[in-house]
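Q&A log
Question type: sequence-to-structure
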Amino acid sequence: MKILISLRIILIVLLAILHTLICAQDANTPPVLMNGVSLPSNFPRFTATINEETAPGKIFITNSEGIPYLMILENNGTPYFYQLLEDHSLDFKVQANGMLTRWIDENVRGYEVMDTNFQNLDTLRCQNGFDTDEHELQLLQNGHALMIAVEERNLSEIDPDGNPNTIVIGNHIQELDENGSVVFEWLCWDYFQLEDSFIENFDALRVDYIHMNSIAVDFDGNILISSRHLSECTKVNRQTGE
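Response status: OK
Response body:
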């Protein structure tokens, strides 16, 4: 028993020494240069290719793999701003009201709303037990938020003859007011049929039959939806849901 305890202590000490050496190596690793800008050694590597004149403005991106960063780039790929993150993010962008937003993975599973100094002002999540999809958040001029919600159902709940081992992923729309309360909710099960999808294999373990990518408010106040696996843009009446 004493020998086992001693071996464990030695192993812990060796792991601590190894961790210290790795951290020291990272600290001593020289920065990298990208278009003349000095960047941390763990900054994501990418190559910018410019074929024609680009639109004015800056590019807001994040990386889904590797060390997570928020990045704002010039049109030629030169880093303008970057921030090292603890969690991976998606859909980093500027909203119409000037606020910055990003979807956060891991423990948050929602959208962080930031001011222009990148200070967190609020965290938005879909309500009524739905998960928050990472594809879209629109902050509206009236202070409301338009989001895509995610719900999973057993196929046999939708189609009595369906495979009970198949999980179908549905996308809904929720509009939240300033207090985070749902003021509008549109459920995909009521309007999109399984046959509307170009996904044919409904015996798979998981079927993403809609894969909603983006939502927007049209000029008449109704909602536009872009759905990848339906291959269509859908206009939803905000009053009736049709």
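Response note: Confidence is low (pLDDT under 50) at residues 11-27.
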